[in-house]
């Protein structure tokens, strides 16, 4: 079983829709959870950073962590074509090396 | 406020040559991480450094790869005697303590 599982997609949704991205993980020691956005041939950009369970909201983005189910989610409201990118879930045990999912490719259709 | 800087952005080497990748962290950041992204693969941790110290190198291949973060100057990831399998995007991230911020990456191609 891989440490972090993420559906690679691609996921295509119409502009304005709510996007739901998620990951599962196997290591209950993970404490820090992140979502990164990566455009083609660019570096990952940190979107959300959370510690332990709960929700965090930042503009159109909401991150959820459910440690009991080992499941994390990212929701994007009012999706825009500029949101088209690969979204990487990531997590770490301490504030050090990050374990990444393989990424979900998202296409927002105008 | 400049972000994490990496150079060169693209590097082409022939098999057996050496590759040197440089990373300048964001101002005020004392933690540097290197990750590798192979085609169709996720980002994989390689090494974590603070000034003049290697904190965690558990992701580094045992041979040919080394990293340093000297007191002055950028962090360097060095790959000796490159092979075709080393072709990948190498990303550096820096952190003040918690969140890691990534640079644009160096794309290494080994001919």
Q: How are the secondary structure elements laid out?
A:
The complex is a heterodimer of chains A (110) and B (111).
Chain A: E1 4-6, E2 11-14, E3 19-25, E4 32-38, E5 45-51, E6 54-58, E7 61-66, E8 71-76, E9 85-92, E10 99-100, E11 104-109
Parallel strand pairs in A: 2-11
Antiparallel strand pairs in A: 1-3, 3-8, 4-5, 4-9, 6-7, 7-8, 9-10, 9-11
Chain B: E1 5-7, E2 10-13, E3 19-24, E4 31-37, E5 43-50, E6 53-56, E7 65-68, E8 75-79, E9 88-95, E10 101-102, E11 106-110
Parallel strand pairs in B: 2-11
Antiparallel strand pairs in B: 1-3, 3-8, 4-5, 4-9, 5-6, 7-8, 9-10, 9-11
What does this structure look like?
The complex is a heterodimer of chains A (110) and B (111). Chain A is built from no helices and eleven strands. Chain A has 110 residues and is an all-beta fold. In chain A, the strands form two sheets. In chain A, strands 2, 4, 5, 9, 10 and 11 form a six-stranded mixed β-sheet that branches. In chain A, strands 1-3-8-7-6 form a five-stranded antiparallel β-sheet, with no helix packed on it. In chain A, a hairpin with a 6-residue loop joins β9 (85-92) and β10 (99-100). Chain A is globular. The mean pLDDT of chain A is 94. Chain B has strands at residues 5-7, 10-13, 19-24, 31-37, 43-50, 53-56, 65-68, 75-79, 88-95, 101-102, 106-110. In chain B, the strands form two sheets. In chain B, strands 2, 4, 5, 6, 9, 10 and 11 form a seven-stranded mixed β-sheet that branches. Chain B has a four-stranded antiparallel β-sheet with strand order 1-3-8-7, with no helix packed on it. By secondary structure, chain B is an all-beta fold. Chain B has no helices and eleven strands. The relative contact order of chain B is 0.34. The A-B interface holds A 4, 32, 34, 36, 41-46, 49, 88, 90, 95-103 and B 4, 33, 35, 41-45, 48, 55-56, 58-59, 91, 95, 97-105, 107.
């Amino acid at each position: 079983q891989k440490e972090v599982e993420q559906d690679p997609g691609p996921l295509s949704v119409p502009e304005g829709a709510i996007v739901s991205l998620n990951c599962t993980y196997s290591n209950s020691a993970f404490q820090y959870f992140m979502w990164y956005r990566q455009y083609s041939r660019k570096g990952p950009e940190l979107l959300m950073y959370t510690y332990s369970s709960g929700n965090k909201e930042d503009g159109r983005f909401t991150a959820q962590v459910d440690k009991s189910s080992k499941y994390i989610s990212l929701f994007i409201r009012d999706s825009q074509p500029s949101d088209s990118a690969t979204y990487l879930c990531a997590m770490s045990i301490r504030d050090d090396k990050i374990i990444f999912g393989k990424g979900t490719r998202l296409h927002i259709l105008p | 406020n400049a972000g994490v800087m990496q150079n060169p952005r693209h590097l082409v080497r022939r098999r057996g040559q050496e590759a040197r990748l440089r990373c300048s962290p964001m101002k005020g950041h004392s933690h540097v991480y290197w990750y590798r992204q192979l085609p169709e693969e996720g980002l994989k941790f390689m090494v974590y450094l603070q000034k003049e110290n290697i904190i965690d190198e558990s992701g580094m291949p045992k041979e040919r790869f080394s990293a340093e973060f000297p007191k002055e100057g950028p962090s360097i990831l060095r790959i000796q005697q490159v092979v075709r399998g080393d072709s990948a995007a190498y990303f550096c991230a820096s952190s003040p303590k918690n969140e890691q911020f990534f640079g644009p990456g160096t794309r290494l191609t080994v001919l």
